[in-house]
Amino acid sequence: MTSVRQDEPVRPTTRDEVAAAGSELIGGPIGRRALLGTSWLTPVRIIALVTIGMFALGMVQKLPCYNTGWFFGATSQYTHACYSDIPHLYAGRGFADGLIPYFDRLPGEMNYLEYPVLTGAFMEVASWMTPHSGLIQYREQVYWLVNAGMLLVCAAVIVVCVTRTHRRRPWDGLLVALAPAFALTATINWDLLAVALTAAGMLVWSRSRPLAAGVLIGLATAAKLYPVLLLGPLLMLCWRSGAWRAYGKTVAGAVVAWLVVNVPVMIAHDSSGFHIREGWTKFYTFSQERPIDFGSVWLLISQRTGNFLADVNTYAMLLMILGCGAIALLTLYAPRRPRFAQLAFLVVAVFVLTNKVYSPQYVLWLIPLAVLARPRWRDFLIWQACEVMYFLGIWMYLAYTGNGDKHQGLPLEGYQLVIVVHLLGTLYLCAVVVRDILMPERDVIRRDGDDDPSGGVLDGAPDVFVLGQAYREPRHAGHFEGAPEVRWGSVRE
Q1: CA-CA distance, 196 to 199, in Å (whole number)?
Q2: Per the UniProt record, which residue ranges are transmembrane (predicted)?
Q3: What's this model's pTM, rounded to 2 decimal places?
């Protein structure tokens, strides 16, 4: 195994056989000059440029829909796999008519915007930069372009944050930039906003700034629900290391940031006094009431058994609780304290796997976490291949069901197969992450001499509470030196 100096960045082309083979397409492994940043093309700048290029390719892939598919062809947006929610919701959620999200009631079945407040604000800002007159088709095209430009900024933030989180592994960010599912799904919806805030939160946590990390996680939760799940892994890691003060700051920052964004929209006042605004609750009631939908394991079970699964909310919640409980036990039993990114990936993956719906863009939640948790090109690309198959499969299935008697596309059995492929691909990546936790010597991050570069105050800290036999020889104890150890509930001085 090639040795790496502690002050030298890790070169993936010398540590990863797939990265080394792929580098031959651009002239071979990267040299020390580019690696050490002595030229203008530093890793961060190269990866940002690659991200912009891949994002542009993703926009080109949507070109058939941009021209006609979103407006005149009900199924052509599926046969070309270029569907996007953005142009449809411009008119469908009242932005074209100047309605204010959460305050103005919408005509039709969806009476209020069904997105969290910060995402609604993002959508509203984009509508301000869209012409307020002209053909609706033209305005929807402009609205999609404006949103694409704003989402490109989010994509750049994501790759910069991932690149900088593991100081000695900047080139891992290239996995995010080149991820095919990232380019294909980036402009389907507004998920990149929450992903960017989450990535920024993990970056500042890695710099031992728990309060700022909490604020960013709170803002991310105000844009999408899943980022709040990261507080669970942090709870278990801080419990094991005794870093309660840091955890308290993180939770406080998250709660305050979420409240600052939500309270002005949440609270309404009229002659009867203060009450919770109906428009604000729509996201939460919609998430609770929506039926089983595309891509979920529950849809697969329902279709194969003919059972409607009326209690699916209960089943999904129970599975989520069991999964989180297993992750908590894994954290406390692991021979060495897991890395934050590993647990963050696992808990979000459990949420994705047990949810009632799996929209194609949900893969964006996992990509940065997967890169930080398991920066191995082979495993990442296997998982990405599964996600691309699902991306194509769902659109071909919708083309099949929406094309009348022609039935051009993927039949039900084929769609069920791509759901299984998606589930197995995600489970495979979860399995290798769990293996790295149980066998730390297999973890590529720790094989290079690091402890937890995404862990911030946890990096190198000793354990104070574990279950079973655990690693107790940290490289450096930092400000936790001298803390008592707790084992099986008893304190050992």
Answers
A1: 5
A2: 40-60, 142-162, 174-205, 211-239, 312-334, 340-359, 380-400, 415-438
A3: 0.91
